[in-house]
Design a protein that fits this description.
eight-stranded parallel sheet; TIM Barrel; about 40% helix; binds flavin mononucleotide; two-stranded antiparallel ribbon
Length: about 325
């Protein structure tokens, strides 16, 4: 397949694996890249810039294809040393960075000077246009369906993608809610140059997470995600569990008095317990509505080959059946 995204990143298929805390390790990123997509290591999952440098080296041992690193700028209890993480990315020879969360403008000069292509993840047209204006090479447009942080506008991709297509000049990928070839074709029809998937890639053979996490994804339906932290404007879509019900109860009780500190034990330090230990009740973890469409655990190669083959069939055969001479 050839789109502006495959050209920009030098990849075979316009399929990106978005950064995922404690999931986006070298095993998954290299498997996605080896299968022709773009795998992404999640920078801040590595506790220090030196550890990120090691993870980049590990990934380079597992693939000779392009891969990226995600840098997330979100409110955090202790802000990480971003400049040093960027140094590790540059020194590691990585040529693609996915930024997300706050405006990445302060860090663009360093990234651009090193010849790095930047794709910024945005949840609105206005933020996408801002990313274009400040010099990002592409954007990942993340709709309301997405796992993780959908922003505060609640615009689903059926509206958000064609709106982005109307306004943007730089390439963009559709992110959020995608897991099937039909959805991939729809995203391309709506104007996207490719897709970004998170949740779907957790249920793959190579995702380096506990089997309980993959089973939870198989067991869940599209009704099983919840939005948390809306009162503090840090909305996150997560899979429902007892901890999430507790968070929702606290949010109801405290209303506008809610502070992030009130949720510390329920949202902080949760990922290692869930992803490594398989403790599914440890706290809140991101998961998208697409969970309702996931029923298998393929390898990344099987997943990507299937998506591409089915998408080609839909484009070539299924859709043309609707045409009359
Ligand atoms: C478990 C999990 C962890 C995530 N962690 C991050 C993160 O650290 N940084 C980030 O930019 N996005 C993160 N995301 C968002 C994904 O990169 C991607 O944008 C999102 O999953 C797309 O929606 P989907 O899950 O419906 O495919 C995470 C998503 C999930 C499911």
């Amino acid at each position: 397949m050839k789109t502006r995204i495959t050209e920009l990143f030098g990849i075979k298929y316009p399929i990106i694996q978005g950064g995922m805390h404690h999931v986006g390790l070298a095993e998954l990123a290299s498997a996605v890249s080896n299968a022709g997509g773009l795998g992404i290591i999640t920078g801040l999952t590595q506790k220090t810039p030196a550890k990120l440098a090691d993870e980049i080296d590990r990934c380079k041992e597992m693939t000779d294809k392009p891969f990226g690193v995600n840098l997330t700028f979100l409110p955090s209890f202790e802000p990480p040393p971003y400049a040093e993480y960027i140094e590790a990315i540059i020194n590691g020879g990585v040529k693609i960075v996915e930024t997300a969360g706050n405006n990445p403008e302060a860090h663009l000069p360093a990234l651009k000077a090193a010849g790095i292509k930047v794709i910024h993840k945005c949840t609105s047209v206005r933020h996408s246009l801002k990313a274009e204006r400040i010099g990002c090479d592409a954007v990942s447009v993340d709709g309301f369906e997405c796992g993780g942080h959908p922003g505060e506008d609640d615009i689903p991709n059926m509206i958000l993608l064609p709106r982005a297509a109307q306004e943007l000049s730089i390439p963009f990928v559709a992110s959020g809610g995608i897991g099937t070839a039909e959805q991939m074709v729809a995203a391309l029809a709506l104007g996207a140059d490719g897709i970004n998937m998170g949740t779907r890639f957790i249920a793959t053979k190579e995702a380096p997470v506990h089997q309980n996490v993959k089973q939870a994804i198989l067991a869940a339906s599209e009704l099983d995600t919840r939005l948390i932290m809306r009162p503090i404007r840090n909305t996150e879509r997560v899979i429902n569990n007892q901890a999430v019900e507790k968070i929702i109860e606290l949010e109801r009780e405290k209303g506008s008095d809610l502070r992030i500190e009130d949720l510390r034990g329920l949202v902080g330090g949760v990922y290692p317990k869930v992803m490594d230990d398989g403790d599914m009740e440890a706290g809140a973890w991101s998961c998208g509505m697409v969970v309702g469409l996931i029923n298998d655990i393929p390898s990344c190669q099987e997943l990507i080959d299937g998506l591409v083959a089915d998408a080609q069939n839909i484009i070539r055969d299924k859709l043309t059946e609707f045409l009359v001479d």
